[in-house]
Fold these 2 entries.
Entry 1:
Amino acid sequence: MAKLLIVDDEEDVREFAANFFRKRKLDVSTMPSGETAIETVKTDCPDLVLLDIRMAGINGIEALEQIRKFNTSVKVIMVTGTKPEDNDALAKCQSLGVLEYIHKPLRLDELEHVVMSALK
Amino acid sequence: MTVFAASSLILFVFSFVLSILISIFGKAKLNRIWALFNLSVAIWALFIFFASNTHNEGAAILYWKLAHIGGLFISIFFYHTICVFCDINRKKTILFAYSQGIFFLSLCFTDLFISSVSIAFNSFYYNNATVTYSIALTFWATFSILGLFELFRNYRTATGTNRNKIRYLFLGFLIGFLGGGTYFMPMYGLKVYPIGNFTIPVYSVIVTYAILRYRILDIRIAVTRTGLFLAVYTLVLGLPFALAARTKYLLIAAYGPNWWIIPLAAMAALATIGPFFYVHLQRKTEEALLKEQRRYQNTLKHAAIGMTRIRNLQKLLSLITHIVTKTVRIDYAAIYLYTAQTNEFTLQVFREGNRERRRVPPVKLSADSPLIRWLHLNKDPMIYDEIKRVLQDAPNPVGRKIEEQMRHILASVIIPSFLDQKLSGFIVLGDKMSGQIYTSDDLNVFQVLASQAALAIENAQFYEDAKEMQAQIAQAEKMATIGTMADGLSHQINNRFYALSLIAGDTIDTIKLTDTQKCSPEIQEMIKNINAALEKIQMNVTQGGEVVKGILKYTRKGDHKLDPIDLDQIIDATLEMVKYKVKLTELDIIREYPQETPKILGNLVQMQEVFFNFIDNAYDAIVERRNTLKEEGYRGRITISARRLEERLEITVRDNGMGVKKEDSRKLFTPFFTTKISARKGTGLGLYVIRNIITEHHGGRIAFDSTYKTGTSFILELPIAKAIT
């Protein structure tokens, strides 16, 4: 069973996204922050991380930088709610080997499509 | 020579000169007839001078007959003058008057009219009245009285200057004919000395003054001044003579041969005090007479000073009309101000002093109308009566139009008000409720009031503009704050939308995956409804996301990287943004450039901002034209065209909106400058920012061309992207 880690500081997002993908027969775990996400990647080795960029504490990009230090293979999809062009975020994400870059909000079926094709 | 003969000679010279002067100064009908009146007086005076100077009875009879050539017509010309002055049609009566005059003239040299003379006052020959003469005299008197009657009738309906003039005519008549009547006394053997020679010149002068002068003194003032003058100088000159005559012997006894020094000294002393005394008396009496006038003139002066402190334009205008109607007691007052957009003078406020009412005044006057041009040219207050009198003297089409316009806007007086030599507006005044005239003093005060009002109005307008500008700056600041907040805001909003999308999507998914076959039809129906509702939530979330995206596009700073972009790309992206602000269905956007138009080297985000401003401005201008000019079948149009100029692309954005006036166009690119016509309402920053984007960031050029009431074009010159594709 493929492992999906959802990182978002919004509880509702975590809950419903997890719920949705569990129905898709994925092993879903959720984390509310960048810090906890790094630990989970270390211990749990997920196949795919759905990573929110702007969070309280360290942001998604910083978390990913940490993760890449010990894990270069895990697939990552970045989720952003703001302007992607700012701070060269897009370029940085690309250099960190991000698979996809998606903008909030989006329809769940689109998200499903992105996640499922990443895990194929 | 007798006193009668001497005064006759003086009367002759006086009347003759006066009749010549009157004919020189005006060719109008009124002047001609009044000149004839004076001529007939002159003839009369000349021959009674000869008659009273001869010792030959036969000659005296002849002279008296000759005198009546003039005398017979005096009352006829008087009557005719009054008919013309009052503008009344009495053709038949006038014809009859002249006919009887000519009839008696034909009898004049027969013995029926004058057959004998007798010595009067032991000094000169005076003619005796015959029966025919008496009949002629009856006619003569009838026409005098008829003239007086017409004058009286006209007085009751006359207003303003005319009313005042009629008073003068009355007074003149009273003096003139009371004296003139004494001419006839000796003819009937009555021992009354004929004093007409003295009173008729006074009469002639008064009437001539009233007829010829436009702006005449209030009669009360004129009478008082004359009376005072006569009184004071009779005293000054008369007292020393009286002193000399009565006390001559006493003085000789006391002072010897140099006795005359005493009355001379007295005269010198009195002559020195006299003028002061006269001026003092005059001031006192006029103060008493004009108490009312001085009171409101003072009020007006105070009001004029206080006005500049009022900042609310509407309040200020109402106050001016209020003060004018209340304190001066005028039955109507209105203010018109210049409106640059339409080149018209528009009615701002009007006020009626009394309740019963007339027509509604016209709301606007074109700046090209004859009345306005006249005001502009002459800069003086205009008085309806004067215009009308000028027209009577010299009818002309322009004058008639002016007269008509003044009547139309209910003006007895118009006080123009100027700012920097430009007519900024005018005050319209109706008649005084007292029926009195507007004096020169009044007009002076009104002019002061008007010029103060012009300043105050400008002040208030400036204040209101400043207030509006401040509001715009505040708005600009708010926009800027929102811009900086947009980043965080959009994150927050998108997070909410994201959560909503997941909640709705997951629930839909759950429903989809759940087997509802076993449920009752009611439950199935309910689930179907819930599903539909969730779908709607998802749809709204998607749309909301689009809105946020639009805001982000507009507020993002973006980098300044220049990329090859084509015009379609810019326009599409701009329309996407602009549709939230501009009703694109109200206008046509026409792309008039060929398919193969080269790409420019530019920053899409910034170019979007530039075109956003163009379209937004154009839209405002289009709305303004639609609302201001109200043309039939008008539809807004924005045309975008482009042509290659070597290494550059010239892009023209042309609208058919209101356009910009010449004086505003210089300031168009100034920060915070905004007119309602062009710059985007809200910031006044639009074109300033645009110019920076084009010239600083793109190395391009921007120019514009605008014709008021036709439209505006912005012309951009941007570098063409080198073909690297």
Entry 2:
Amino acid sequence: MKHPSYTIQSLREGYLKKEFTPQEIFQHYTQRIEKENTALRAYLSVFQWAEQGWEQRNMTDDCSLFGIPIAFKDNMLVEHTIATGGSHILKNYVSAYDATAVARLKSAGALVMGKTNMDEFAMGSSTENSAFGVTRNPHDHHRVPGGSSGGSAAAVAADLAVCALGSDTGGSIRQPAGFCGVVGVKPSYGRVSRHGLMAMASSLDQIGPFTKTVKDAADMLEILCGQDPYDATTVPRDVPSFSATLDAPIKGLRIGIPKEYMGAGLDAEVKERVDRSLALLEEAGCTLVDVSLPHSAYALAVYYIVMPSEVSSNLSRFDGIRYGHSARGIKDLLEVYRQSRAEGFGAEPKRRIMLGAYALSSGYYDAYYLKAQKVRALIRKDFDDAFKHVDVIVGPTSPTTAFKIGEKSSDPLSMYLSDIYTVPVNLAGLPALSLPCGMGAESHMPVGFHIIAPMFDEATMLRVAHHLEYALQ
Amino acid sequence: MIRVWVWLSTESTGPARPGTAGASPVHPFHFISMLSEKEIDHIAELARIAITADERRRFQKELSVILEYVHQLDTVSTEGVEPLYQVTGLRNATRPDAAPGAPDHERAQRIVDQAPHTQERFVKVPSVLKKQ
């Protein structure tokens, strides 16, 4: 068998022509993982063919991911397998059920290759906060893959999976997709069920795909999106056929460029690639429109109140009683909590839990949490106002390309700033995508182009991305 | 809180802070409000995390720096603005109050088995009420 970098599309064609079988493709990827993963550390665990339960499957219409190898971020549950969330506190935790997103992909015929590395409980922008070692960027092993879904991004970029799932709370799909040069999508809040996803910040978390092409992302989203009785925040809306409208013309679309995303702090090599993509969109007949998101400067400050507050609440479930690590030889209940959490959590979760506990504590709630949620409303209103004039909003996914391992790990605030363009989108709940738009002239690392759409308008976002992807080739 | 000078070592290497666009690089020394050690102990108690003396010192600086950063929100006028707690507009998602099917005892046992201390189908917990 040859060794091309497969996509959902190319595998589908190969299966139709009977060029290979799902078992052969699974073995092909298993061998690639064995060869590459020691250096990359994209996967934390790898599954066997026997675990796929695949004896009776056929390629049918309702099996649109027939034989497609997929990797899951390790904060999603796959029944009977370990889900660590990148944390020591869950290093032996065995999932009792499938996450809805996992179940949907499995029933569409996907092959589960394994679970990918991540920042502990999805808290980080580099995957350096994993309790199980650092994932490396496939383009340069001295650099980070981004985070928190760094393992999923690296696995797809290095062709150790055809596609992968990640979760995005403040940019954790789009930023690593940009750093690794793959497509990464955060759907609208409410589109994809989070049942079986370890909750980080529940008003922001959303599951989405990493793929090699926009078409593949559209195919994945058609399966992932839709209401789920197990997640009450999923919306009762029809899921359009995203792939059917990809080729519709983009001539005449109005593309908004926020001046706040193109100014100070943006690296010249990133700006150069983004400007090139803007020129291509203009050539394709789109109209470029300057827009303003005046409150986006405050998004990170809002995020670092809202997110830790929700983290402190969600992570209170790790008590050393019901599951996960429990401190030994302690008789007092309060001490079981205090010691189990002290031993089980790494520095970043501790920092965020404490920050959240403080922001929500008596006497500080109005000054921090309530104030932040009011500014959040203003951030959402900025987007609403801008979308009265434009169809999508675009810019860079991150201000820089992938930074060096260790470069920012000693300074939390400087690490947080790498999510400066992605965070406002989560606060507003909007869908957004990162598309690879070339390599930076200086770092020779991938640059991500960020496309943001109005609530639930994934179709237009994907269509613009699909046309730009073609124009960039 | 007291106000002190702290050293923000890698400040100048990161991207510019939002809200300071175009400003000269931030001076590596910064005048900020510092949480006291007593406040850190109180927060750790609320968070149910035992911390070491080393961690107390580290969190004191790190949390203070982040709080200083988020205080830029004080400059935003939010008079008459309703807080945005959620973005979909969904209200009261309910379901019929009925059992979805026969209980799955095997799965239930697997969930119980995740607990560090169990006895049959029960989770063991240290005593909550103390003997006098």
